Amino acid sequence: MSTTYHEPFDSLSEDARNIHRALASVIEELEAVDWYHQRAECTNDPELKEIVLHNRDEELEHAAMGLEWLRRRMPALDAHLRTYLFTSENILAVEESAEGGESGSGESTASGGDLGIGSGKGGK
Fold first, then answer.
1. pTM
2. Which one of 44, 73, 77, 116 has the lowest number of neighbouring Cβ atoms within 10 Å?
3. Could you report the per-residue pLDDT of 83-95, keeping only the tens digit for each?
4. What is the dihedral of CA 76, 81, 82, 86, to 10 degrees?
């Protein structure tokens, strides 16, 4: 993947450039996860499959590290991850609840429910 800026490089803050770098890295790691996963799915050699799955899981670790760096710097990403991750409810029901639909469906098990982040549409 080539690093593509959609705005003039000199117009972007160092923070914006670093976020771009992290996003590009996470994308690359997830692409590698896909490649390794497909290879593991297709091989009929058990030892090779074990190695490829190990490599896939390493890339998942790298992607998670990059995602965490981004979460710490992007409040909107933090809010969305707190809403959708580590829930057992239907994902669309979680969205409806987060946007002011029925209360109680989709509470995050990681936060104990009330996220204090509002609807995500400018209101609280």
1. 0.75
2. 44
3. 999 999 999 999 9
4. 180
